[in-house]
Amino acid sequence: MAVRPLIAGNWKMNLNLANARELATALVAYMKQESGLDMVVCPPAQLLAPVAVCLEGSSLGLGGQDCHAQASGAHTGDISAPMLRDIGCRYVIVGHSERRADHGEIDAVVKAKAAAAHAAGLIAIICVGETEAERDAGGATAVVEQQLRGSLPEGATAANTVAAYEPVWAIGTGKTATIGDVVEMHAHARNILREIAGDGGALRVLYGGSVKPNNAAAILAAAEVSGALVGGASLVAEDFIAIANAAPK
Ligand code: PEP
After folding, report:
1. Closest-lying ligand 1 atom to the alpha carbon of residue 210
2. 167 CB under 6 A from ligand 1?
3. Does the CB atom of residue 219 touch ligand 1 within 6 A?
4. How far is the CA of 73 from the centre of ligand 1 (A)?
5. What is the pLDDT of residue 2?
6. CATH no. for 6-11+35-245
7. Which residues are paired to 230 by β-bridges?
8. Which secondary structure element, helix H or strand E, spans residue 205, and what is its range?
9. Considering the entire predicted model, what is its pTM?
10. How far apart are CA 151 and CA 41, in angstroms?
11. Nearest protein CA to atom 8 of ligand 1, as residue
């Protein structure tokens, strides 16, 4: 792992206020003595403000789980990138497979959201990944290529964008890609990023999909893996910290 690792926690639609504060406080304490990596937590929208308070003065970053492509307006239930920035976020996840599946977000929508994130000064964590059926049909690399090309906006750089390869069949299932598959897909993603982003060689590419303390070291040591996007294991401080500790620094 040549670049500074990023360990990102996607809390999804989990935790209440008390749990969130407790988890954030434990991670803030961890980051006080860890300077070799970046860490970000992405709570659900209603927890962003209280978690931001817990994170004040910490290197632990805050991120949204999604943003609207517009900066403001009549979009009931949505949250915009400038709103996330205003509340203290530095990151936002866009194009997560659960957003793509549950909300019909196609690449063009993801691209518009990432562009909105950039315009607001946020780092967009852009997720891509194939379904099990696509992998079984031999189409995994083509799907990831199409999603990367279709979801990265003009002006994406290593400073404002992180890519996350998350095979859909590995998310929340306990299944992980083999290290061989991870290496192959990350090499493929790297080649595409070199072509489509100015400094695509430096852009961080995370792996996501059932990353746990017991498999993190092997995944994080794989070529072209610059960190992890973690769902379930990011809800337990000791598991998330164990994953961070497994990152080569
Ligand atoms: C995710 O939600 O991005 C994810 C990778 O979840 P999990 O770690 O639970 O598979």
Report:
1. 10
2. no
3. no
4. 31
5. 59
6. 3.20.20.70
7. 9
8. strand 204-208
9. 0.97
10. 22
11. 231
Q: Encoding tokens for residue 222?
A: 């794989």
In angstroms, the CA 225 to CA 219 distance is 7
Interior angle at CA 35, CA 16 and CA 159, nearest 5: 85
For atom 4 of ligand 1, which residue has the closest CA? 231
Q: Determine the atom of ligand 1 nearest the C-alpha atom of 234.
A: 8
Distance between CA 247 and CA 249 in Å, rounded? Answer: 6
User: With left for phi above 0 and alpha for psi between -120 and 50, is residue 224 left, alpha or beta?
Assistant: left
Distance of alpha carbon 125 from alpha carbon 113, whole angstroms = 11
> Ligand 1 centre and the CA of 80: distance in Å?
23
**Rounded to 5 degrees, what are φ and ψ at 123?**
-90, 120
| 172 touches ligand 1 (CB under 6 Å) | yes
Predicted local distance difference test score (pLDDT) of residue 1: 46
What is d(CA 200, CA 213) in angstroms, rounded to the nearest whole number? 29
- Give the residues across from 165 on adjacent strands: 128, 207
Cα(137)–Cα(249) distance, rounded to whole angstroms?
37
Residue 237's pLDDT is 98
Per-residue pLDDT tens listing for the chain (249 residues): 458 999 999 999 999 999 999 999 999 999 999 999 999 999 999 999 999 999 999 999 999 999 999 999 999 999 999 999 999 999 999 999 999 999 999 999 999 999 999 999 999 999 999 999 999 999 999 999 999 999 999 999 999 999 999 999 999 999 989 999 999 999 999 999 999 998 988 999 999 999 999 999 999 999 999 999 999 999 999 999 999 999 998
